[in-house]
Amino acid sequence: MRAPTDHVSLAQTSPWLLRRPASLGEALLWSLIIAVCLRAFSFSTTGLDWDESFYVVIAQRWLAGSVPYAELWDIRPMGVPAMFALGTWLVGDGLLAARLEALLAVAGTAALLCVFLDRFTGMRPAGLLAALFYLAYMTRPEGLAANTEVFNNFAVTAASFLLAGELIARPAATRPGPMFAASLLLGIGLQFKYVIIPECVALCGTVLIWQLVAGASIRRTAGLAAVAMAGGLLPTLGATLYFWWAGALQDYLDATLRANVAYLAEPLTFATAVERLRYGLLPIAGLLVWPFALAVLARRWEVGRRTKIVCLWLAIWLVAACVDVVLPLKFWKHYFNALIPPLCLMAGLALTWLTSGVTSGPTSGLIHRRAAGAAVATQVGAARLMVAGIVLTLIPAVAQMIKHAANSRSILRQNVPLAISERIEAGGSNNRDVYVYNYDPLVYAYARSAPPSRYVLGIELADFTASAGITAEVEISRILATEPRWIVVAEPSPYKFGPEVWRELEGALRNYKRDSTFQETDYIQPPIEVSLWRRRESPGD
Q1: What CA–CA distance (Å, rounded) separates 172 from 176?
Q2: For 341, phi and psi rounded to 5 degrees?
Q3: Contact criterion met (CB below 8 Å) for 367 and 385
Q4: DSSP letter string over 314-365?
């Protein structure tokens, strides 16, 4: 059966907005407006993700002269902290800078998704739907935090847009310029997080293989491969040269190579993997049906060459993103954000395609058969199908927004790390005497205090000592021996430290008094009580 001839039968009677070709600037403007409305209330909300807090701390200390890896250890690349450093320098507030940059990345990705389908399929409603779905699903708490996937989605989507355009327009004559630009974007993405290697290989490799199949010479294809490798490796080369210049090359190589291998080797039980898969996939369940729907529609209808290429491209992209999610073998919830761009494109394309079929004849199904000869009734049926599809797709995203609204929006919610830092400021600090034992490292940023350890995130010492290369007993004992003036402790502990560590902490706290206590809730874990302890200045203090 033949698909709707131009895929826009619904749009033919739709408003002018749906009929005009989309420009990237216009799509970005609308995406920004919607993203601000959805995300602005979260700009000062803490507790969304402590990885984000850690990046803010790295950025602040970097601006103060500390060198990442040497003085603040992590296994991830420093692309996100580098962006946060620039944003902090411009805005002043590190958390606000991070959230604003996340806003721009999400809006930019949504705009690219909109233009992607409009330009390559001629279906502007499909592009608008893809952008809407993306903005909604990235407004879940996992998407509000300025985590690596938020920025990688933009880099990968922009690269995918460039490469798909070359694949469709020039199957045997891909230009070196777009190939270099796309691979450079992917290389920048690698400096956000290394796990996008599957997308790099799959998307660039597809273009190169397509070149050969379309009749390009091996010499030309090899040249394009060299261009792609140069663009992809350039950001990594720049990062390596910087850390060599800063005197932290050995620490950088240790974190990049040894620590990442050790992290991948950390065991994960089957039960934990299943649990995390459930928490990662259920919140995006509204998008998961659309790849299957698109496959059915593509087989049922005769489609043109461009549409076939787009469907194949999206399938390759989605499979590569799935490998991206699985690759670290940890399945944290925010990893699944990598699936959302290709899923949104598939959802927008399939839903618009399905709705167009209702009004165009051969495969219009039950609605069309009942409404044959009644154009108005047919358009009403198509509109109802479209609305039903949008609502069903958005239900999981909206449910997550509502469920976690109290812990992902700042209205009437205390900023506990800020409150702790205010108590520290009132009690006095030399900006090097604060120790956050097992709580949000954002306290360091608000207090403008240098962490007493390279290992700022407690989870590195509690659960990932193999990759950190040090034990909690050794490092925490060293920190407590320095007798920091302020210690922040959360109970029940978000991290599983051993009995020896807790005994040492309890012994140390005999020389401290509780300054203040705060009740903290977030969308990830049960409520905790956060205590700020101050060292006694004298035995009677």
Answers
A1: 12
A2: -60, -55
A3: yes
A4: HHHHHHHHHHHHHTTS---GGGGGGGHHHHHHHHHHHHHHHHHHHHHSTT-H
For residues 358 and 368, the answer to whether their CB atoms sit within 8 Å is: yes
CB 438 within 8 A of CB 490: yes
- Helix, strand, coil shares of the chain, percent, nearest 5, are 70, 5, 25
**What span, in angstroms and rounded, lies between the C-alpha atoms of 62 and 83?**
11
Q: Are 56 and 98 in contact (CB under 8 A)?
A: yes
Contact 56, 101 (CB under 8 A): no
- Which candidate, 46, 84, 77, 44, places its Cα nearest to that of 62? 84
Quick one: which of 202, 229, 212 has its CA closest to 174?
Answer: 212
Q: Are the C-beta atoms of residues 396 and 284 closer than 8 Å to each other?
A: yes
140: left (phi over 0), alpha (psi -120 to 50) or beta: beta
How far apart are alpha carbons 536 and 21 in whole angstroms? 69
Block means of pLDDT (10 residues each) for the chain, length 541 residues?
44 44 84 95 90 96 95 95 96 95 97 94 91 97 94 98 91 90 97 95 95 90 95 97 96 94 87 91 95 88 79 96 92 94 97 71 43 55 85 95 85 88 95 95 96 94 90 95 96 93 95 95 87 86 68
Residue 362 CB: number of other CB atoms within 10 A? 14
| Amino acid at position 503, single letter | R
Q: Are the C-beta atoms of 42 and 100 separated by less than 8 Å?
A: no
Structure tokens belonging to residue 321: 């993103």
Contact between 339 and 284 under an 8 Å Cβ cutoff? The reply is yes
Sign, CA dihedral 521-525-529-532, equals negative
